[in-house]
Automatic annotation (TrEMBL), chain A:
Part of a SCF (SKP1-cullin-F-box) protein ligase complex. InterPro entries: SKP1, SKP1-like, SKP1-like_dim_sf, SKP1/BTB/POZ_sf, Skp1_comp_dimer, Skp1_comp_POZ. Pathway: Protein modification; protein ubiquitination. This is SKP1-like protein. It comes from Pisum sativum. SUPFAM superfamilies: POZ domain, Skp1 dimerisation domain-like. Keywords: Ubl conjugation pathway.
From TrEMBL, chain B:
InterPro entries: F-box-like_dom_sf, F-box_dom. The lineage of its organism: Eukaryota, Viridiplantae, Streptophyta, Embryophyta, Tracheophyta. It comes from the Eukaryota. Residues 8-49 form the F-box domain. This is F-box domain-containing protein. Gene3D superfamilies: 1.20.1280.50. Signal peptide: none annotated.
Length: 176, 154
């Protein structure tokens, strides 16, 4: 009994020194904008939550230097919907419509950094859809990746891999 | 956002695999693999190319008479053979519905299947590589599968 009381006292004293601890978590974007979110939102972000857990909830202001104030609201919106159980095909379609390629990439990196599994899976699919049926050059440009194969290496690989799919064109069903 | 671009070539393997696994085999091999060395080596990840599934192609042409032609079979052969022979790709599962004996022989040799598993045409062949290197071979035949999808086509 005595123990219980003292632990209650303990938590009281914490919430006194940090009045916001039970109320909201402050996420600070790389460009120093503060976003106040419910603790349930923070739970969706594993990186944030583990930070909170490590400090026993004493720290409620979390700097996210890798995430801009442009991207963070999207992440928060997705997490809110996720908690509410309202991630539908329609919501995802609308959500992705708002995003250009650059934003999709940034959000993906943000989701990766924050370790939000659902968002990461969703954005993986979005990216896969956007690079499907595209040339190697397009994929490189899309991600801004430097080709580090030598021309000889690339030619050899292309030759080896490419003819797997040559002559397989579903459109030529009718010729027989 | 130069910095974030550099991150894409060096994304963690898990992240990259998550994206690449959602691409069709064609996009993987004609696109993603050739992007850069780091992506190419991501394809050493067995889960990425463990399944060679040509099912989508069958679905595309299921309504045509193409399926029964020699030409179609040779197309399947021409897709299967380089993949089987490639040293970069190690398959754990092959889903095809038709191919030639020659292709099956090839699969058998590459993955050291015993000859009794080298079945003739008109089979739905599904090779599954078990954890310890031995192949479990399922040759799902066919009757029920076929009845639904193909018998009425010819």
């Amino acid at each position: 009994m005595a123990e219980e009381v003292s632990s209650q006292m303990n938590s009281l004293s914490i919430s006194e020194t940090n009045p916001s601890s039970s109320a909201t978590i402050s996420l600070v974007s790389g460009d120093d904008i503060v976003f106040k979110v419910e603790p349930t939102i923070a739970k969706e972000m594993e990186t944030v939550q583990s930070f909170i857990d490590e400090t026993d909830g004493k720290i409620t202001t979390i700097p996210l230097p890798n995430i801009s104030s442009h991207d963070l609201p999207y992440v928060i919106e997705y997490c809110e919907k996720s908690i509410a159980g309202k991630i539908t095909k329609e919501f995802e379609a609308e959500f992705v419509k708002k995003l250009n390629n650059e934003e999709v990439k940034e959000l993906f990196l943000a989701a990766n950094y924050l370790n939000i599994k659902k968002l990461l899976d969703f954005l993986s699919q979005v990216i896969a859809d956007r690079i499907a049926n595209k040339s190697v050059e397009y994929v490189r440009r899309y991600f801004g990746i430097e080709n580090d194969f030598t021309p000889e290496e690339e030619a050899k690989l292309r030759e080896e891999l490419a003819w797997t799919f040559t002559g397989v064109d579903p459109d030529d069903e009718d010729e027989n | 956002m130069e910095e974030s671009n550099a991150e894409w070539a060096e994304l963690t393997r898990d992240c990259l695999t998550n994206i690449l696994s959602r691409l069709s085999a064609k996009d993987q091999w004609l696109g993603a693999m050739l992007v850069c060395k780091s992506w190419f080596s991501a394809f050493k990840e067995p889960s990425l190319h463990s399944v060679f599934n040509l099912q989508p192609y069958f679905d595309l042409s299921r309504k045509s008479t193409l399926l029964s032609t020699r030409k179609f079979k040779s197309k399947i052969d021409s897709m299967l053979q380089p993949v089987v022979q490639s040293t970069h790709i190690f398959l754990t599962q092959i889903c095809i519905q038709r191919c030639s004996d020659r292709s099956l022989d090839l699969v058998g040799q590459r993955y050291k299947l015993s000859s009794k598993f080298q079945y003739p045409l008109f089979l739905f062949v599904c090779f599954t590589k078990c954890r310890f290197g031995a192949f479990k071979v399922e040759i799902r035949s066919v009757m029920s599968f076929y009845k639904d999808r193909f018998l009425n086509l010819n």
